[in-house]
Design brief:
The chain is mainly alpha-helical and 178 residues long. It has one domain (3-159): Four Helix Bundle (Hemerythrin (Met), subunit A) (Up-down Bundle). It has five helices and four strands. A two-stranded antiparallel sheet has the order 1-2. Strands 3-4 form a two-stranded antiparallel sheet. A hairpin with an 8-residue loop joins strand 3 and strand 4 (130-132). The chain is globular and about 45 Å long. The two termini are 26 Å apart. InterPro entries: DinB-like (IPR024775), DinB/YfiT-like (IPR034660).
Length: 178
């Protein structure tokens, strides 16, 4: 795979992850804990960033544990069926995102023409994902950016706070983003 394409992919995917880390790490501590919708979006984004980077997905072993719950068992603020087993701190969420950021960087930089022939395949059910590696990476990038934008919108609406935009990976200068 062409080196410049890998650099472009990492510049954009890394920027998306940086924006997610930035919005979570810069949310006020009390807001992070008390605003449950913000918390559940942050948790969901963190888990799925790692999940979509796990090839094959059957090898997924999350750092932060959760339980899948039926609709009637879920908190109303939850955005899916993955409910954290405890309320994780902002620092735990950010640390997990940093690990996933490094995992993503390694995956992107190790892409080869041969690796691109592999697939992200969940199973054989009708709604299971079965994507080429490049497509799951782009899907994951879009998913990450979508939720970073939601979190930014919540902060802006609720407490009139905004986070930085990142054109490329490394644009946001923060001790939290390594």
């Amino acid at each position: 795979m062409d080196k410049s394409i890998k650099e472009i992919l990492w510049n954009q995917f890394g920027a998306s992850i940086d924006m997610l880390i930035n919005v979570i790490s810069n949310s006020p501590d009390d807001y992070f804990i008390t605003h449950k919708r913000f918390y559940y979006i942050a948790f969901h984004s963190t888990i799925f960033l790692d999940y979509y980077l796990t090839i094959p997905p059957s090898d997924f072993s999350p750092i932060l544990s959760f339980t899948q719950k039926e609709p009637e068992e879920r908190p109303k603020e939850a955005i899916d069926d993955l409910i954290p087993d405890k309320i994780y701190s902002k620092q735990e969420i950010v640390a997990y995102l940093q690990q996933s950021r490094e995992k993503c960087k390694q995956i992107v930089h190790s892409l080869t023409d041969e690796k691109l022939k592999e697939r992200f395949k969940e199973g054989d059910e009708a709604n299971d994902m079965d994507f080429p590696i490049l497509e799951i990476l782009l899907y994951n990038l879009r998913h990450t950016q979508h939720h970073a934008a939601q979190l930014n919108m919540l902060l802006r609406q609720d407490i009139d706070k905004h986070s930085e935009w990142s054109f490329r990976v490394g644009d946001i200068k923060s001790e939290v983003i390594k």
